[in-house]
Design goal:
alpha/beta, 8-stranded mixed sheet, 12 helices, 39% helix, 14% strand
């Protein structure tokens, strides 16, 4: 559907922005006034959670230095959440997101958090492939590791793009994409591209909004206080799935920003926790 004559389409708006405005459009840290406090508290909570559960840490799924995952085991045969961290494909690691496992752990789920190589050492296509390798490893070793139930593949921010890219993996039952970037072309016009150096081919083949729609159920969530670019991408991805007749649930979290939204996954009764539970119970719309 074309934009109304009185309203500019997103690309037309983007073309009018200065470099400073383009950078700000994807700068989540700057957009949230207390982002440094959120990050500091996150890191402390994650370290404590990992320290209390050392049994399944640092499991190698490949030979690369960052090709490792943490497994927080749940009940036998229970579902598993595979959660992919964010950081615009160039920072962060699984270790500082460990405590977000506790929402689903309270329901007996297992939770797996893989790390992956980062730009500029790795191209984005390589990062996507590493997530596939992690899922291949879980498919092979699931019986030994206790990952035998349905698998919900989730990710936050850049991790949401990675999750959508691997939604079609045979191990995956459904997906939960949180605060994601699903069109990469604008990223090339921002400060983020210094490490990524996105090519035309990568934009064409790694932007979920440009790719065929996977028929598995995908829940798409974002905070209403997110930067507009992420809200736009989330709504556009949901609309595309509706148009394709693919199952989709849309969960805007009122008042949540890019950092606070993950508390809905940490809380056993949070909306993201409930969304994951619903994805394997058949209660999603």
């Amino acid at each position: 559907m074309s934009a109304p004559a009185t309203q500019k389409a997103p690309q037309e708006v983007w073309d009018t922005l200065s470099q400073t405005e383009r950078d700000a459009a994807y700068n989540n840290n700057a957009a949230v006034a207390d982002s440094a406090d959120w990050v500091a508290a996150r890191d402390v909570a994650a370290a404590a959670y990992r320290a209390a559960r050392p049994e399944g840490l640092d499991i190698a799924y490949g030979s690369g230095g960052r090709q490792k995952l943490d497994l927080f085991s749940g009940a036998a045969g229970a579902p598993t959440l595979v959660f992919l961290h964010g950081g615009y494909w160039q920072r962060n690691s699984r270790e500082v997101f460990a405590h977000y496992a506790q929402g689903l752990a309270a329901h007996g789920w297992s939770v797996v958090l893989p790390s992956y190589s980062l730009a500029p050492e790795a191209r984005l296509a390589d990062i996507v492939a590493e997530i596939g390798a992690a899922l291949d490893f879980l498919a092979r070793e699931g019986g030994r590791l206790g990952v035998t139930g349905p698998v919900v593949l989730s990710g936050w921010s850049a991790g949401a793009q990675l999750a959508v890219m691997q939604l079609g993996h045979p191990l995956v039952t459904a997906g939960l994409a949180i605060s994601g970037v699903y069109e990469l072309a604008p990223i090339r016009d921002t400060f983020l591209n210094g490490a990524l150096q996105l090519s035309d081919e990568e934009i064409a083949t790694l932007s979920p909004l440009r790719l065929p729609v996977c028929g598995k159920h995908l829940a798409i969530s974002y905070g209403t206080a997110e930067v507009p670019a992420l809200v736009h991408d989330s709504e556009a991805l949901a609309a595309r799935r509706v148009a394709a007749g693919a199952p989709v649930s849309v969960l805007p979290i009122a008042g949540a920003n890019h950092f606070s939204i993950l508390e809905e996954l940490r809380d056993p009764e949070g909306r993201l926790t409930r969304a994951a539970l619903d994805l394997v119970s058949g209660r999603t719309a």
